[in-house]
TrEMBL record:
InterPro entries linked to this entry: ArpA-like, DNA-bd_HTH_TetR-type_CS, Homeodomain-like_sf, HTH-type_TetR-like_transc_reg, HTH_TetR, Tet_transcr_reg_TetR-rel_C_sf
Source organism phylogeny: Bacteria, Bacillati, Actinomycetota, Actinomycetes, Kitasatosporales
Keywords: DNA-binding, Transcription, Transcription regulation
DNA-binding region(s) in UniProt: 31-50
Organism of provenance: Streptomyces siderophoricus
Pfam (any one): TetR_N
Domain of life the protein comes from: Bacteria
HTH tetR-type domain boundaries: 8-68
Name used for this protein in its record: TetR/AcrR family transcriptional regulator
Length: 214
């Protein structure tokens, strides 16, 4: 068991180091040597888990779609909101998530590995379909179109916030995006009950930690 846990930790260290290097230098300029140095591992330890930079990039992208921190809610539309806020909260703090976006917008990496945007769209569509079944969506709302457009809008907001000087933090920006988006999606009675606070994701994480400790 200890050996297995050590292997899991080593694999994660490889991915985090690769993500940091991809974030800093881009995919093409990143090197295995730089990743090994960042991970503070031997070449053999890295190659035991990943045989190439390409495999490392695929491993980073495999970590991109995550619902960590999500808690079941009375409203499915709140869960859709929460996933957006949780990702905004986590992305600046987790190199694996930020690197997955860096790889997705890098034309070379995208041509080699594709992106995980289709997976995010499917995840959003499924939640929105459930929300529609519960009567939470306005009649004209198409879950597939809405999920696709929101993934595009979310990604655009993140890229701009990262690039412009003095931009608000990402959680605040995504909170504002939701406030603009939701009146065209949610029925009024549901809209009034949705929490889009930029601090909601942090509260969800803290509540999750407290539950785990107890």
């Amino acid at each position: 068991m200890a050996k297995q846990e050590r292997a899991i930790r080593t694999r994660k260290a490889c991915l985090v180091a690769a993500a940091e290097i991809f974030n800093e230098y881009g995919y093409e300029a990143a090197t295995i040597a730089a990743i090994i140095e960042r991970a503070k591992l031997t070449r053999g330890a890295l190659y035991f888990h990943f045989t190439s930079k390409e495999e490392l990039a695929r491993g980073v992208l495999d970590e991109a779609v995550t619902t960590e921190g999500l808690v079941p809610q009375a409203l499915k539309l709140q869960e859709w909101v929460d996933i957006s806020l949780l990702l905004a909260h986590r992305l600046p703090r987790e190199p694996l998530l930020s690197a997955s976006i860096r790889l997705s917008v890098d034309s070379k990496a995208r041509s080699l590995f594709g992106t995980r945007w289709p997976d995010w769209i499917v995840l959003g569509r499924e939640l929105l379909n459930e929300a529609r079944g519960r009567g939470e969506l306005l009649p004209h709302v198409d879950p597939t179109d809405t999920a696709r457009l929101f993934v595009g809008a979310w990604t655009g907001v993140q890229l701009v916030a990262e690039a412009v000087p003095h931009a608000p933090d990402l959680s605040t920006e995504i909170s504002r995006l939701l406030e603009l988006f939701l009146p065209n999606v949610a029925v009024p009675g549901v809209l009034a009950r949705l929490d889009t606070s930029p601090f909601r994701a942090e509260r969800l994480f803290e509540a999750g930690k407290a539950t785990a400790v107890s």
